[in-house]
């Protein structure tokens, strides 16, 4: 296609937007509203998924080690146990905590009155074990229980099983909602664009009567769909960026140390804005292409 023809198509697409002002406004408004919903929902789902991933990363089992009076024997037994645990398939990290460190943790969590136990520490040394795949942690726990010098394994079996079930359900529901929303957005916007083009069916028929090829008729309408998608993306991108920026810097100090942590503004906003504009362009192109195709077949 010649450069002059391309420039002509671009020029005509802009002129058509102006000539069909109210229909163009309706299409852009539909794109704006639906893409705003997409942006908000994307932010919510990405943050929820991040929280779920963070929870999974914190999944670990605590291995209490048998008390051995002889210091040298105790050190050898602990080293052997650590090596055995590391060799278990699927183990990602093994962290050793002495009984003195365990007491410090207890004092920090429950209060200064537990300092009384510094003179005669009743606690056991422990290993904290994480899995490469958090969902495999209970299988790893069962294998650790069979090792020598293991007093007990605190794995929170019921809690973890319920947690994994909840996270899987939440992700599946989120995926269904995302797909449903995207389908709804595509349907609504493409129908709005289709109505715009149906209102101009005479224009298409005249172009066909004077000998215009299908591609010559189609390209200006596809370009219009692209401009509508881009223009309809501007307000959602600005609104989503402004709202999340303020929300992040308002809530982050209050959520410090909590389970829920918001994703940083960048690169999240760039990712969501990229999704919005790409979706807007795609829907505009697709809606225009399918609508014009109906008349070109006739």
What does this structure look like?
The protein has about 300 residues and is α+β, with helices and mostly antiparallel strands. The protein folds into two domains: about 5-55 and about 165-295, no CATH class; about 65-150, Alpha-Beta Plaits. It has helices at about 5-20, 20-55, 70-85, 100-110, 135-145, 155-200, 200-210, 215-250, 265-295; strands spanning about 60-65, 90-95, 125-130, 150-155. A four-stranded antiparallel beta sheet has the order 2-3-1-4. Helix 2 crosses helix 8. It is elongated.
Total individual domains: 2
Which ranges are low-confidence, i.e. pLDDT below 50, for 5 or more consecutive residues? none
The largest sheet, given as strand count, sense and whether it forms a barrel, is: 4 strands, antiparallel
Which overall shape is indicated by the principal axes computed on the Cα atoms? elongated
Q: What's the pLDDT, averaged over the residues?
A: 78
Q: Tell me the radius of gyration.
A: 31 Å
| Count of helical regions | 9
Number of strands: 4
Which structural class fits the helix and strand makeup? alpha+beta
Spatial strand sequence of the major β-sheet? 2-3-1-4
Straight-line N-to-C gap: 25 Å
- Beta percentage is 5-15%
SSE string: HHEHEHEHEHHHH
Share of helix, binned: over 70%
């Amino acid at each position: 296609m010649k450069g002059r023809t391309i420039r002509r198509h671009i020029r005509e697409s802009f002129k058509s937007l102006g000539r069909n002002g109210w229909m163009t406004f309706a299409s852009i408004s539909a794109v704006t509203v639906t893409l705003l919903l997409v942006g908000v929902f994307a932010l919510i789902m990405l943050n929820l998924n991040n929280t779920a991933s963070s929870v999974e990363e914190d999944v670990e089992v605590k291995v209490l080690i048998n008390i051995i009076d002889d210091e040298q024997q105790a050190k050898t037994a602990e080293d052997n146990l650590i090596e055995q645990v590391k060799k278990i398939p699927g183990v990602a990290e093994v962290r050793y905590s002495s009984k003195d460190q365990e007491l410090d943790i207890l004092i920090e969590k429950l209060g200064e009155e537990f300092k009384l136990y510094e003179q005669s520490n009743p606690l056991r040394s422990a290993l904290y074990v994480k899995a490469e795949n958090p969902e495999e942690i209970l299988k790893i726990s069962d294998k650790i229980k069979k090792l020598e010098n293991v007093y007990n394994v605190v794995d929170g079996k019921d809690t973890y099983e319920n947690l994994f079930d909840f996270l899987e359900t939440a992700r599946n529901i989120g995926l269904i909602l995302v797909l449903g929303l995207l389908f709804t957005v595509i349907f609504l916007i493409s129908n709005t664009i289709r109505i715009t083009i149906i209102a101009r069916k005479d224009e298409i028929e005249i172009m066909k009567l004077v000998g215009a090829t299908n591609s010559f008729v189609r390209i200006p309408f596809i370009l219009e769909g692209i401009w509508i998608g881009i223009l309809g993306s501007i307000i959602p991108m600005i609104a989503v960026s402004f709202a999340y920026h303020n929300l992040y810097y308002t809530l982050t100090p209050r959520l410090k140390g909590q389970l829920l942590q918001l994703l940083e503004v960048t690169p999240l906003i760039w990712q969501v804005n990229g999704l919005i504009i790409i979706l807007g362009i795609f829907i505009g192109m697709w809606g225009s292409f399918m609508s014009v195709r109906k008349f070109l077949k006739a």
